[in-house]
């Protein structure tokens, strides 16, 4: 709904152009890491020993590719995608820092490394710039817009906070994290996995904007990621350290979250006469 200040919540052409630029890189990275997790020494920017780590990162890449394709082709409202840009900026920044901290672990003679370095040294700046440019057109919620009820809003924010805290701890204290993690990690891959968990920052957006619109796309991206992660866990089942409690806690948690998100998505897909989402509460 346009206003006299131009805040019509549009997604700018420059934002779509950035999405078009990033999406192909993510798709190629997914194919390499998920399709050929045992060939990273030859195909990737650095050798990843754990197949689970390779496929976890690939799952995040395909989820990101799905997100940016939606930005490019489908989404028309900035409210639906803006928190995704925040989490991508955090993710890319952490991977850029990890690259500097572990510079000697990378295969500098490969094109894949220079593509990696170029992307993660420039993407944070580009994504943050796009966010600020598009945020100037962010619109206030309309009175008739569906809102998240108090409990779902708290759950989404809580899951986002837990994900970010986990990711930050893994990034700041990799030597400690590798001793309790569900599968073998190195300090570099621990920080990479931590960056993936920090994508959960998108969930914290409900603390400042409780519109259903702000979580709709995020839920679908998570479904893509969780489905791929669960398949990856089956493929790399021999890597899991079953004597560590976190292995079972994470396994049960990811299965439960995938089931809840899938049930919510299927419920929304069914025709309804009331037009109300069971997790929404209309603004007073």
Task: Provide a descriptive summary of the structure in words.
The protein has helices spanning 13-35, 40-43, 51-73, 82-101, 111-135, 150-172, 174-177, 187-197, 213-235, 245-269. By secondary structure, the protein is mainly α. Residues 273-284 have low confidence and may be disordered.
Summarize the topology.
Elements: H1 13-35, H2 40-43, H3 51-73, H4 82-101, H5 111-135, H6 150-172, H7 174-177, H8 187-197, H9 213-235, H10 245-269
Helix pairs in contact: 1-3, 1-5, 3-8, 3-9, 4-5, 4-8, 6-8, 9-10
Say how many strands there are: 0
- What pattern of helices and strands is seen along the backbone? HHHHHHHHHH
> Looking at the structure, what is the overall shape?
globular
Mean pLDDT across residues: 91
The helicity comes to 55-70%
Largest sheet: none
Query: What is the subunit arrangement here?
Result: single chain
- Helix count, DSSP H or I runs of 4 or more residues: 10
Summarize this, please?
This protein is mainly alpha-helical and 284 residues long. The protein contains ten helices and no strands.
């Amino acid at each position: 709904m346009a206003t006299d200040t131009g805040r019509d919540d549009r997604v700018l052409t420059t934002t779509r152009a950035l999405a078009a630029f990033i999406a192909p890189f993510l798709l190629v990275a997914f194919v390499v890491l998920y399709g050929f997790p045992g060939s990273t020494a030859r195909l990737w920017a650095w050798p990843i020993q754990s197949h689970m780590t390779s496929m976890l990162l690939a799952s995040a890449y395909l989820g990101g590719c799905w997100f940016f394709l939606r930005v490019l082709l489908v989404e028309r409202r900035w409210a639906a995608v803006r928190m995704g840009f925040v989490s991508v900026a955090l993710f890319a920044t952490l991977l850029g820092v990890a690259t500097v901290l572990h510079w000697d672990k990378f295969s500098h003679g490969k094109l894949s490394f220079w593509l990696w370095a170029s992307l993660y040294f420039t993407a944070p700046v580009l994504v943050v710039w796009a966010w600020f440019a598009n945020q100037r057109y962010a619109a206030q919620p309309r009175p008739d817009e569906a809102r998240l009820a108090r409990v779902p809003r708290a759950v989404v924010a809580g899951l986002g906070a837990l994900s970010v805290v986990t990711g930050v701890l893994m990034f700041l204290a990799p030597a400690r994290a590798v001793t309790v993690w569900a599968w073998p990690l190195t300090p570099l891959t621990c920080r990479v996995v931590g960056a993936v968990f920090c994508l959960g920052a998108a969930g914290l957006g409900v603390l400042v904007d409780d519109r259903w619109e702000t979580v709709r796309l995020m839920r679908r991206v998570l479904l893509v990621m969780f489905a791929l992660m669960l398949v990856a866990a089956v493929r790399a089942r021999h890597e899991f350290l079953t004597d560590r409690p976190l292995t079972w806690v994470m396994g049960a948690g990811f299965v439960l979250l995938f089931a809840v998100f899938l049930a919510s998505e299927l419920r929304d897909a069914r025709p309804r006469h009331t037009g109300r989402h069971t997790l929404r509460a209309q603004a007073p």
